Amino acid sequence: MPRTKRNKVISLTKTTRKTREHKTGLLDKVRAAAEEFPYIWIIQIQSDRATFLHEVRELWKGSKIFYGKIKVLSFALGTSPETELRPGLSQLAKRLSGRVGILLTATPPQEVLDWFATHSRKDYARGGTKATEDIVLPEGPVMIRTDPPETLPHNMETQLRALGMPTELKRGVPTLLREYTVCKKGQTLTAESAQILKHLVIQMSEFRITPLAYWSAEKSSVVETNGGIKARKEKSKGEGRKSSGAKDVDMDDNDKEDVDDDEDVEIDDDDEDDDEEDGVAAGDKVTSSMMLPAGI
């Protein structure tokens, strides 16, 4: 039978899909750590960056941090009294929602709270975040926010113009032709304004980890901290189903962001050879612009 001549679409991304074996391995790691440590925390990470999170991992070398796939972490701990790994852990698993992870440690709770209350790192804001101050640039040379202020190099002028700034090169210096407002306080930053702020060395974001709740092996109960995090409500079988002809789906709203199987699922101290960027944010998504017929 002759081979088909239809074009076969291939992916140009180097990101490998997470397999069932990968998830099973993560389950085993989480369960082994949960059996070992007396305290398990839910931690919320603000402005997650691989370098900053790696620094925290190094400073908490004797502990374990898992961050990413909420459903896998919840399943590993047990979501009901019948399936929970240790008494009371299901109450912690039900609170896993949103962009949170778990910290497993032997450090007393007050020491954990004190440490994370003082640990933070300044970072460049990304598109979609809120501006923390007004940034209005006067007419004239574009200055970087350094001490003392410096002008941008000449080869940056075309990039600034591409980002929407009314600039031109005068005597080798990128110069604004008129006053330009980059952002206003409270305004949502666009990708362009966030990139301009980065060029100007203006950091509006902050990496911080907030402990929200912890489970204690001694008391077999969950204690909420820093405002806590609400437990997810379990829905009845008839709830949450779609009325269209699509497949029926039954899940909490908080879990919708966890449906993608390509999302990275862990950051663990034992996996030093893993790509750090894979452990922090969602995995690379394959878009139509990344697809080409085979043979090209």
From TrEMBL:
Tell me the protein's name.
Ribosome assembly factor mrt4
Task: Give the location in the cell.
Answer: Cytoplasm; Nucleus, Nucleolus
Can you give the residue ranges of the Large ribosomal subunit protein uL10-like insertion domain? 125-202
Subunit-level organization = Associates with the pre-60S ribosomal particle.
Q: Which organism is it from?
A: Tilletia horrida
Q: Which SUPFAM superfamilies match?
A: Ribosomal protein L10-like
GO MF annotation list: RNA binding
Q: Which GO terms describe its biological process?
A: nuclear-transcribed mRNA catabolic process; ribosomal large subunit assembly; rRNA processing
Q: State the similarity comment.
A: Belongs to the universal ribosomal protein uL10 family.
Keyword annotations? Cytoplasm, Nucleus, Ribosome biogenesis
Q: Any idea what job this protein has?
A: Component of the ribosome assembly machinery. Nuclear paralog of the ribosomal protein P0, it binds pre-60S subunits at an early stage of assembly in the nucleolus, and is replaced by P0 in cytoplasmic pre-60S subunits and mature 80S ribosomes.
Superkingdom per UniProt: Eukaryota
GO CC annotation terms, alphabetical: cytoplasm; nucleolus; preribosome, large subunit precursor
Q: What residue spans carry the Acidic residues bias annotation? A: 250-279
Q: Which InterPro entries match?
A: Mrt4, Ribosomal_uL10, Ribosomal_uL10-like_insert, Ribosomal_uL10-like_insert_sf, Ribosomal_uL10-like_sf, Ribosome_Assembly_uL10
Compositionally biased intervals (Basic and acidic residues): 236-249
Residue ranges for the region (Disordered) are 229-296
Gene this protein is translated from: MRT4
